From TrEMBL, chain A:
It comes from Macrostomum lignano. The keyword Transmembrane helix applies. Its main location: membrane. GO terms for biological process: protein targeting to membrane. One of its GO terms (cellular component) is endoplasmic reticulum. This is Palmitoyltransferase. Keywords: Acyltransferase, Lipoprotein, Membrane, Palmitate, Transferase, Transmembrane, Transmembrane helix. One of its GO terms (molecular function) is protein-cysteine S-palmitoyltransferase activity. InterPro entries: Palmitoyltrfase_DHHC (IPR001594), PFA4/ZDH16/20/ERF2-like (IPR039859).
Automatic annotation (TrEMBL), chain B:
It is found in: Endoplasmic reticulum membrane. Residues 23-134 form the Golgin subfamily A member 7/ERF4 domain. The keyword Endoplasmic reticulum applies. This is Ras modification protein ERF4. It comes from Macrostomum lignano.
């Protein structure tokens, strides 16, 4: 059975058997990496020799720490899933497209393509959601389709060739921290490169002699100087975007430009810049929805094939139920194979989550013997009766083992 | 496959939706919150009482919305991860993942107690990229 990464239909590059994902063309990323690594190595190897002795050994140590942090952020940005929304299954696509107004030919003989917009009102402002024919899904607000990677990305910011990936909801904080840490690091390298030259020229009493003696300093200072303009500028721009809770894509399209259109409010803005910063940079991290390391089970099409075959009544239903229940148990759930499984093993793993069944659920379902637990606010069972010997539901501790220990895609 | 391509020169789409599946779409009326529509799909009319369905989806929504809420523990977890250069995520499970895991367990429980007896099966929304909740009609 193939894994999901092996049947991934987009144009992104999947690496390390589904553990990492990036854009296909990484040539500019290699340039970025080379610039950072080579300049840092030259700085640490040559400039820091004099600086460690003359000033303090903490100068190269701080430089090394910053270098590692910059690399971590860069590699995370490049190889993380930016928030790709997995493509819709064929059945979902059929369901949505059956509801869309189809292609029309009007009286003049002009072809009108199928209408694929729907309006949604969010906090008093109308958003137009688009149906993505490539990905077969209604694009959530703030999502956009990246033509380079051929994916819909949630909270799409932009596709950055310098980091070799899209920047979207999942990796925006790594991208921003990469910019900020690189700005600080460039400034640090430039300042201490100049300090090194000044110290050397003081010792040699000649600035040109010092430059000839330490040409790598000149090189690192120049690289840092030219990088600072772009990196600090971009960092400042993104700081402003974060404080306004806007993405680059929305800024370019003017989606929330209230100067031009006062009614274009931003419903995602939390009111103040600090709250927005905290949420964007330190808010909840969505796990990757691609689930690349799991088996590809032909997501739903096997079921529609089975039940389409009207000849085998119960056989097809049984096969369908097996196909449905035999979902990969790996990522989030422990699997209960069938309803008659009375072993404590499967039930023992139903734990505190049952407590959230609200009191509005009826205590008894009509017509069948299975009863539902209704819990009071303090977790004690109310009137619900447990059937089938599964009496461990209420009192069970959360003893769930994760079915897969592999922490998949970053 | 249950779908068919539209015929040429047809004035309306002839794509057929799958007969044995009902889909519960995302509800974006509250923004990008993780929330599914509580409206009973037409295919499930008569198979499951509306109030049961609404309560089930409501409970799932509660867990999902909690996953996306920025609480103090979430912020602390992110700050800690940041300080370790995000290397902590290699061995740490995030709050979001824990919430999705509890949603999976809840879906299993509902399949056992609510949907299974009615010959329905709910697919965990994580299996569908949090786009839809798919409910399979096991018997017509």
């Amino acid at each position: 059975m193939p894994k999901r990464w092996e049947v991934y239909p987009g144009k992104s590059q999947v690496l390390f058997s589904g553990r990492c994902i990036s854009a296909k063309n990484l040539s500019v990323f290699y340039l970025t990496l080379a610039l950072i690594v080579i300049s840092s190595c030259l700085f640490l190897a040559f400039d820091c020799r004099l600086l460690a002795v003359t000033l303090s050994p903490s100068v190269p140590v701080l430089a090394a720490v910053q270098f590692i942090f910059v690399l971590c952020c860069l590699l995370r940005t490049t190889f993380s899933d930016p928030g790709i929304i997995p493509r819709g299954t064929p059945d979902e696509a059929a369901w949505i497209e059956s509801q869309l107004e189809g292609p029309q030919v009007d009286r003049d003989g002009n072809y009108r393509p199928p209408v694929r917009l729907k309006d949604v009102q969010i906090s008093g402002r109308v958003f137009k959601l688009k149906y993505c024919f490539t990905c077969k899904l209604w694009r959530p607000p703030r999502a956009s389709h990246c033509s380079t990677c051929d994916n819909c990305v949630d909270r799409f910011d932009h596709h950055c060739p310098w980091v070799g990936n899209c920047v979207g909801r999942r990796n925006y904080r790594y991208f921003y921290l990469f910019l900020i840490s690189l700005s600080v690091y460039c400034l640090y390298v430039m300042v201490f490169g100049i300090v090194n030259l000044v110290l050397l020229s003081n010792m040699r009493k000649d600035f040109l002699m010092a430059m000839k003696e330490s040409p790598t300093s000149v090189l690192t200072i120049l690289v840092a100087f030219f990088s600072i303009w772009s990196v600090v500028g971009l960092g400042g721009f993104h700081t402003m975007l974060i404080c306004r809770e806007t993405s680059t894509n929305e800024d370019i399209k003017g989606s929330f430009n209230q100067r031009r259109h006062p009614d274009l409010i931003n419903p995602f803005d939390q009111g103040n810049g600090l709250a927005n910063c905290c949420y964007v940079l330190f808010g909840p991290v969505t796990p990757s929805l691609l689930n690349f390391r799991e088996d590809e089970i032909g997501l739903g099409s096997s079921i529609s094939l089975v039940t389409n075959n009207g000849r085998n009544g119960t056989a097809s239903a049984a096969a369908a139920s097996t196909a449905v229940t035999a979902t990969p148990a790996v990522r989030y759930s422990n699997l209960t194979r069938n309803n008659n499984d009375a072993t404590s093993n499967s039930v023992g793993h139903v734990n505190n989550s049952v407590q959230v069944i609200s009191e509005s659920l009826p205590a008894q379902l009509p017509g069948d013997g299975n009863d539902v637990i209704v819990k009071n606010g303090n977790g004690t069972p109310a009137d619900g009766v447990i059937s089938g010997g599964t009496d461990t539901v209420g009192a069970q501790n959360s003893n769930t083992q994760s079915a897969s220990s592999v922490h998949c895609i970053v | 496959m249950s779908s068919s391509k539209p015929l040429p020169n047809s004035s309306s789409a002839t794509i057929l939706p799958p007969a044995n599946k009902a889909f519960v779409p995302r509800d974006y009326s509250h923004g990008t919150e993780l929330r599914f529509s509580t409206e009973l799909p037409a295919k499930l009319q008569g198979r499951i009482p509306e109030e049961v369905f609404t309560a089930v989806i409501g409970n799932i929504n509660q867990l999902l919305i909690a996953a996306e809420t920025g609480s103090a523990s979430v912020y602390l977890e992110s700050c800690f991860a940041c300080l370790t250069g995000y290397l902590a995520y290699i061995c740490m499970e995030t709050q979001y993942e824990k919430c999705l895991r509890s949603v999976s367990r809840l879906v299993e429980e509902y399949n056992r107690t609510v949907f299974g007896p009615r010959n329905l099966s709910m697919i965990d929304p994580s299996e569908r990229g949090l786009r839809v909740i798919e409910i399979v009609l096991l018997r017509p």
